[in-house]
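quick one, 240 residues, struct below
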Amino acid sequence: MIKLVPSISVIKGKVIRLISGDYEKETEYEKSPVDFARMFEEVGLDVIHLVDLEGAIKETPVAFHVLETLCGHTNMKIEFAGGIRTDGDIIKLFEFGASYISVASVAARDPELFTQWIFSYGREKISLSADSVDNKVLIKGWQKKTDINLFDHIRHFYDLGLKYVKVTDVSRDGTMVGPNFDLYKKLVDTFPNASIIASGGVRSTGDIRKLDDLGIYAVIFGKAFYDGKITLDDLREFNQ
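---
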């Protein structure tokens, strides 16, 4: 059964959603990160994908207080993403309660360093965030496009033992147009021993079921829940 992972993206402690990674197209939600986390916990979910949008732009994590509060007020495991550049960042995030770390920019800019992190912290703790548009990897909070081919990028680390790979088709993120199913099918077929995490475009539990049928390990969802297209009852029923 596919794992359900809600995404909580934050700027200055507020829950924010972007459309296709555009910081000019943001929606702020009234409830706090803890409010949402408790809702997810009550229906049986156990992992949150916490995205530090401010940290991604500043290229250094800043949402430590949000991470600490979520860990202190819920039993949810937190996967942290956004702005991670150094061993010091990772150590501090683990100290503040993160269970997992998701890395994008460093993996593209300094593959040797990211490889060291996989071996140093373990393949269960470190995941690759390989987000793209038209199969070209994006970095720095999706604001900078590279010439790196998505599949070549994943292949490099997959051959070194990488286990978890989060892939977002950024053009679909927050758009409610549906996931890029063709992309995810190709990923599952190409990297059969990886745990592929799908993100971007999810609009219903029907989309989640289709990803499950493709063999996707986990799905990250956000806007569909925040806009009421996926309800707590849906999540509770799906997670049984």
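The radius of gyration is 16 Å.
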